[in-house]
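Final report, closing paragraph on structural work. Over the funding period we assembled a curated collection of sequence-structure pairs, and we close with a single example.
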Amino acid sequence: MTPAWRHLPRTLRLETFSPRTPKTCPSLSRAFWRSVTKLGLHTKPRMPPCDFTPERYQSMPYSRVLEVYKEHLSPELVYFPDPLLLHQGHMQWLFDHEGNRYLDFFSGIVTVSVGHCHPKVNAVAQKQLGRLWHTSALFFHPPIHEYAEKLSALLPDPLKVIFLTNSGSEANDLAMLMARAHSKNTDIISLRGAYHGCSPYTIGLSNVGQFKMTLPSGVGCQSTMCPDVFRGPWGGSHCRDSPVQTIRKCSCAPDCCQAKDQYIEQFKDTLNTCVGKSIAGFFAEPIQGVNGFVQYPKGFLKEAFQLVRERGGVCIADEVQTGFGRLGSHFWGFQTHGVLPDIVTMAKGIGNGFPMAAVVTTPEIAKSLAKCVLHFNTFGGNPMACAIGSAVLEVIKEEKLQENSQEVGTYLLLKLAKLRDEFEIIGDVRGKGLLIGIEMVTDKTSRQPLPREEVSQIHEDCRQMGLIVGRGGLFSQTFRIAPSLCITKPEADFAVDVFRAAVTQHMERRAK
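Its predicted structure, as stored:
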């Protein structure tokens, strides 16, 4: 007879979360419920209601999906010991092949900006699908020009020339080419911990070890110290543009950050020792994504941009994860730093999951590129992508999703900060809007990363209770919270309760 504990994850999810399953299950034995209590799962949070019922799953059996993955698909990173087989999505919710419901707090790697299968976006996509799937930049078609007009209106002068592409890596590739064509220089600087893509060129800008290759790549790319005020050598309680500050103490005044000054000195050292007298440019995410949503000291980017321009370089803001209202207070992440980039790259949330990206720059830089190369992209500006992109912009405005990101994101951040104060292994809570990092440590004094296997168990426990979150950081020690911008406060409450329960279970396991 199969032991009761073997069925625990599936049975518990169905009993607690499935919209089709009764709240009680009298057929389960008393021995089973005793095993649940011993595991601490009697405190499992109640999932908020959802008025959507998924279709019945009728595709490949789970076992066959695993076989196809192992035999025919690239060996990419897959979350969880038993990978999720997702079947359907509705706004902030995902449903697996068994009908279990999950609150999606990672949005397909910070990509589903307005919600899975948003009705308006779906309707626009279906209409365009019946009219024209594809043309290219060789021909005119109104959705392309309508989208360009809408997007350019959201960016300050002189950022008005748009190049449409298909992915963030491709957008950053093009931005690198633009910077070099305009400056006539080669060296490009990026921050350690940065992720700007994994194409042969952008891999040189991405400074996260697991994405680096032993093969030659990324010629002319140099890294500089990441101004991480939690894990770096300098930082304190006034550094970040966030409702939640690091618990590290410092002697800085609120309007004078000594940590920023120290990191700028490191940036100057890179300019003086690692690159030529003239450079092509500097790439920066307004908040680092893959590195666990790391924030820089206030004022750092403004001074770094000035130093780069003094060397003849251009400044590139990578808004792939921070753009489109996700940070709440502003539509673009660079605006939170009070800077004006020369080039802005964007992807992910731009199309709510549809493959789409863009590079926006000045007329001057666009002309420099045209003098060097005839740039052409077969699928960039695809009519489907542009129609969907326009619908996404309309939904963000009509449903006030940027404002919701500010309100619910701040609410969630402050609640998570209370968990940080409650648990020794939660070292840092940071972020802005609905881009939030929770960094796990062995203890707050040493700030050593919590071992990967322990973080993985907490991650799995969250999944079993119906919450999907991301992972990040150089040691995979940080949980990345980035739900669709449509989430509500009750759903934020549920997420916090799940995370508290998962950490509590982990502490109970440790104590044994």
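Confidence is low (pLDDT under 50) at residues 1-41. The chain has 14 helices and 15 strands. We thank the funder for supporting this effort.
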